[in-house]
Automatic annotation (TrEMBL):
Record's catalysed reaction(s): a (3S)-3-hydroxyacyl-CoA + NAD(+) = a 3-oxoacyl-CoA + NADH + H(+)
Domain 3-hydroxyacyl-CoA dehydrogenase NAD binding: 292-468
Lineage: Bacteria, Thermotogati, Deinococcota, Deinococci, Deinococcales
Pathway(s): Lipid metabolism; fatty acid beta-oxidation
Source organism (scientific name): Deinococcus multiflagellatus
Protein's name according to its UniProt entry: 3-hydroxyacyl-CoA dehydrogenase NAD-binding domain-containing protein
Places the protein is found: Peroxisome
Main location: other
Length: 693
């Protein structure tokens, strides 16, 4: 895995562990052997460390995180050997030097890089921290503030910036190895060797750390590893290197063993897994999508169009009236201009994107589109009419997609002569911002159409997850149960603010009622009315329905369940509280006080229970997919790994017990797994194995 090659008096150690030269078992052994050989050989004056293939070491091998310490690759030992090495060592960086890769480079005497290399310590994203000297060395090079910025955001910096910061000693234009060899020869005789571990930190005043501790309350609320990182960076300022180095090892283990890190690592793997569709080969042909059509320029259509404009694809957007078209276009332009004001886009970018957009009142203008996405009112009649017309006018091979949230995609596909071309592309609001895309595979959707949509999701920066057809697909079906349970909790005595606070404490930025107020109370109400009529039940008349009937529809009308001031912070409203109390009195309910723990168990329990049903029915392929959907679409905290992973952390039997205690019937799959002492991850493995057979 590590190749040794001599270039006169320089020994080059090249790391070969494709695709990204992760620090896997074998790499440290190879590096240590190379270093020992170089130390013992008088003819060697200096050592160059370089990555083979497309990158330097892009990080630790995350699969080894679960191993006992003795079996894990010995990054710290390698770093120590580098730091104590008696001859100059030069790290030659291209691609990315991330995490353990950057820590190796920091332990070398010098670092050189190609200008577009990227350097960073992204460990925080996996709920851990740099564990091989990074927290102690980075502040000694770039100063306390910059090191905190890099370690807390996890975002890499460009080599050109690293050069200005002194993190890189030289930028190499042209051949990296040749440049690194020339550099090594220049510094071969330098003594004493520059060692970062011997430097002091710039700018580490107590205020810097106090401000960082304050800032993470907002950016990393409830998370462990960011606060450990700050503690360690502060030690780099105030304590001898050796002390910080030892403390780092201990805190690294603490973070690594935490449920938060398990949750984030689960998301890391499961997100990659969700891009794979069982039974769909890598060689499935893809359609070429060059022109996109969007029907409807309302809340969703405008945002959907922006995704494609951002990716450089021309979009034709169709509306029924000039007025609706103008309004839709105005919203798109204002969104772009506000990004430009924040410095995220240039004025030219705004114009370039708007120039790719063609407004139209004629569906005939979609005849050349390769993909057409319908985003009109949620009404089966209207959608069927549109798909009938699309079938007549769209070119052969065009993908016909619907953004419906609740309607049956099979029924929509059935009005066309080409149901294999029809698919659901369920974007989330605001569609230009939210990362999730549920890709709804209907009965007859072809593999090519499905694979093309998965690839397209990636192209427009979305996380695409394949789901099957059912009412609400995966995310909305789960959130529907969750909403019901939240309302029941209020029926029984909790206040809406109690319910939201419990979910905020679990790490959700919005609780169920904050979410309802944002989405608009009328939307949920319309769905409840629709469902009741379908089932021949009486009109819904819960306390929330009564709030809607007072005309309060949520944030858009200035208030709903809560009142809002200019900062959009929710405040309880006394009249609404009275309405709830009157409702309870009318129904003969004696309110009881409900603990945050009960609220959390009941709300997560209903999510997990519905998730288990969805999984059993095959609407979701994997429990991991449900986690991805719920994290990216509904704000479930990534560090809890999604509801299904969270169930495993609690123990499935506890979830079953809570469901029964509060009057729910546990899903058969959930009960079975609990009985067998398994988790949903076990279920995913079982299903993957049986589909391979
Ligand atoms: P909206 O009312 O904001 O916009 C619908 C637009 O479609 C209107 O501007 C209307 O003029 C236009 N329209 C109606 N009939 C048309 C036709 N025949 N040709 C062209 N344009 C036509 O609705 P929305 O919130 O954008 O929802 C659109 C779809 O997206 C619905 O199916 C909805 O269920 C789904 N959806 C909505 C959300 C959400 O949060 N709002 C999220 C996901 C999916």
């Amino acid at each position: 895995m590590v190749e040794q090659s001599r270039h006169d008096d320089i020994l080059v150690l090249t790391i070969h562990n494709p695709p990204v030269n992760a620090f896997s078992p074998g790499v440290p052994e190879g590096l240590k052997a190379g270093l020992s050989a170089a130390a013992a050989d008088d003819r060697i004056a200096a050592v160059v460390l370089i990555g083979g293939g497309r990158t330097f070491v892009a990080g630790a091998d995350i699969k080894t995180f679960g191993l006992p310490r003795e079996q894990a690759p010995d990054l710290r030992g390698t770093v120590q050997q580098l730091d104590a090495f008696p001859k100059p060592t030069v790290a030659a960086l291209h691609g990315t030097a991330l995490g353990g890769g950057l820590e190796l480079a920091l332990a070398c005497s010098y670092r050189v890089a190609v200008p577009d290399a990227r350097l960073g310590l992204p460990e925080v994203k996996l709920g851990v921290l740099p564990g091989a000297g990074g927290t102690q060395r980075l502040p000694r090079v770039v100063g306390a503030q910059k090191a905190l910025d890099m370690m807390l955001s996890g975002a890499p910096i460009q080599a050109t910036e690293a050069k200005e910061l002194g993190l890189v000693d030289d930028l190499i234009e042209g051949g990296l190895l040749e440049g690194a060899l020339a550099f090594a020869r220049r510094v071969a005789a330098v003594r004493p060797l520059p060692r970062i571990s011997e430097r002091a930190v710039d700018g580490g005043s107590p205020e810097v750390f106090a401000a960082a501790r304050e800032a993470i309350k907002k950016t990393h609320r409830g998370q462990l590893s960011p606060s450990l990182i700050i503690d360690l960076a502060e030690m780099a300022v105030n304590r001898p290197f050796e002390e910080g180095w030892q403390a780092e090892a201990q805190k690294f283990m603490e973070a690594r063993e935490s449920p938060q890190s398990r949750g984030l690592r689960h998301l890391f793997f499961t997100e990659r897994e969700s891009a794979k569709i069982p039974g769909l080969g890598k060689d499935t042909p893809l359609l070429d999508i060059r022109r996109v059509g969007v029907i409807g320029a309302g809340t969703m259509g405008g945002g959907i169009a922006m995704n494609f404009l951002n990716a450089g694809l021309p979009v034709t957007i169709v509306e029924t009236t000039e007025e609706a078209l103008d309004r839709g276009l105005g919203v798109i332009r204002r969104n772009y201009e506000s990004s430009a004001k924040k410095g995220r886009l240039s004025a030219d970018d705004v114009e370039r994107r708007m120039a790719l957009l063609t407004p139209s009142l004629d569906m005939g203008d979609l005849k050349d589109a390769d993909l057409i996405i319908e985003a009109v009112f949620e009404d089966m009649g209207v959608k069927k009419d549109i798909f009938t017309r699309l079938d007549a006018l769209a070119k052969d091979g065009a993908i016909l997609a619907t953004n419906t949230s609740t309607l049956d995609v099979n029924e929509i596909a059935a009005v066309t002569s080409r149901p294999e071309q029809v698919i659901g592309l369920h974007f989330f609001s605001p569609a230009n911002v939210m990362k999730l895309l549920e890709i709804v595979r209907a009965e007859n959707t072809s593999d090519t159409v499905l694979a093309t949509c998965m690839a397209l999701a990636k192209k427009i920066g979305k996380v695409g997850v394949v789901v099957g057809v059912c009412d609400g697909f995966v995310g909305n079906r789960m959130v529907h149960r969750y909403g019901e349970e939240a309302r029941r909790l209020v029926d029984e005595g909790a206040s809406p603010a109690d319910v939201d606070a419990a979910m905020n404490a679990l790490g959700l930025p919005m609780g169920p009622f904050q979410m309802t107020d944002m989405a608009g109370l009328d939307i949920g109400y319309a769905i409840r009315v629709h469902r009741a009529r379908q089932r021949g039940e009486p009109e819904p008349d819960g306390w929330l329905d009564r709030i809607v009937k007072t005309g309060r529809k949520g944030q858009k009308t200035g208030g709903g369940i809560y009142d809002y001031d200019e900062t959009r912070r929710p405040r309880p409203n006394a009249d609404m509280q009275a309405l709830i109390e009157a409702y309870r009195a009318e129904k003969g309910i004696t309110p009881r006080s409900i603990s945050a723990d009960e609220i959390t168990r009941r709300l997560t329990g209903t999510l997990i229970n519905e998730g288990a049903r969805i999984l059993d029915e095959g609407i979701a392929q994997r429990a991991g997919d449900i986690d991805v959907i719920y994290i990216y679409g509904y704000g479930f905290p990534a560090y809890r790994g999604g509801p299904m992973h969270y169930a495993g952390e609690q123990g499935l039997q506890k979830v079953v017990d809570a469901l029964k205690q509060y009057g729910h019937t546990p899903a058969p799959l959930l009960e079975r797994l609990a009985r067998e002492g398994k988790t949903f991850a076990d279920f995913d493995r079982e299903r993957a194995n049986s589909s391979q057979k």
